[in-house]
Amino acid sequence: MTNETEDLTSPECPAEETLKAVTGKWKPMIIRLALEGPLRFNTLLKQLPGSNKESVSNALKDLEGAGILIKNVIRLKPLHIEYTLSEKGKTITPILKTMEVLSAQACAKL
Amino acid sequence: MTNETEDLTSPECPAEETLKAVTGKWKPMIIRLALEGPLRFNTLLKQLPGSNKESVSNALKDLEGAGILIKNVIRLKPLHIEYTLSEKGKTITPILKTMEVLSAQACAKL
DNA sequence: TATGGTAGTCAATTTTTTCTGACTTATTGC
DNA sequence: GCAATAAGTCAGAAAAAATTGACTACCATA
Fold first, then answer.
1. Most buried of A19, A69, B35, B56 (most Cβ within 10 A)?
2. What is the pLDDT of residues B42-78, one digit of tens each?
């Protein structure tokens, strides 16, 4: 079955899509932190020293848009919002893990 | 044996080092093309439509500096320069390959 | 000596990304 | 009703990355 839909907006489509989802000043760290458990906005800001609301907010939106994080509103006493890694997000983490190993090798040489 | 060298310039060092080596508008494509064989400057420019000398030059320098590409001067008739993937470069390519699979999945959904 | 190919560099500009600080909305506690 | 906490948004400024066009250096051939 051939694909009939004309996909005018499609990129050249190599690793671009995934790379876009992972690049940005704060996204890799956010994914790493998401691996350890659900994220909350203000906590996250404190976990990312030097970051700022706007950038973290945008990164979260991008990661949510890319289907890597899932946003859930928790209707509890204080009412808060949690970001958790999706299944797709989990498939990306081995990539980051491999990168960490390569990075560690690079850092060891400094 | 503990590491005695004070490493003031070291980054936080997760996947950052590798990510930096791979990010930029042209670097992933350059690595992909390097997989297929040695690269030459002007040819590369033509293989990367929309690119420009300066950016490609900088990308090559970064990739060389990161130890991903190796620059060799070929002293022949026209005299040219070849960039080939290093062993380290080859260890990075499975990462890009995995990303391609994930990207393809993402593109398939568009 | 001029022309062409290869591999760039450099300064200035444009575009993109990130940062800052002020402001907003929703809910709870006093 | 008033302040506080949580989770943001928005406009403008600053910083970083990419683009442009002109220029350089090397070698070879006509």
1. A69
2. 999 999 999 999 999 999 999 999 999 999 999 877 7
